[in-house]
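user: can you give me the structure for this one chain? tokens are fine.
assistant: on it. calling the predictor now.
[tool input]
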Amino acid sequence: PRNERKPAACADGASGSAVRTRCGLSLVSWRTVRRCGMKFSENRPVKIVMLGAGGTGGHIAPHLYRLLYALERPVRFIICDGDIVEEKNLVRQNFTPADLGENKAKVLAERYSSVFGMETEYVPEFIESGGYLLSTLEPRVFRTGAYSNSAVIKALVILIGAVDKDKSRKL
């Protein structure tokens, strides 16, 4: 079955829509988040996974790093792309001749993590299976205190799709 759309109820009774994907993810549109006034804890850790580091992802990355740098909370940013920088990419993508032959995700992660002093991870391969995507999106659990009986919170996970491969796009 293809992705199925279901109503998403807001706390105030308004409604939006959520999409349940084939690999079991529930996605809520930004329009629904704004209309429902969903709020998230200001100190909740954030994990962002960006699929694609080429034409779109390469231009999203520097701006996203700036935003993440300004957050005063734990942040984890993972860039995933299995492609390498080629001569033809230099015209329209955010790469330089020094990047030729390197993995796109690696180039972006190393460039901007050093500029902003942030720890970044990269996956130098295409994410083409639902299981692999789900494992990449698994949120970390954080304790709110120093003791083992302290409350726990899960990181807020955000997936950014900036891919040009149909197989990855259809997940």
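assistant: here you go. DSSP finds five helices and nine strands in the chain. The beta strands are 4-9, 15-20, 26-28, 46-51, 75-80, 120-123, 141-143, 152-154, 156-161.
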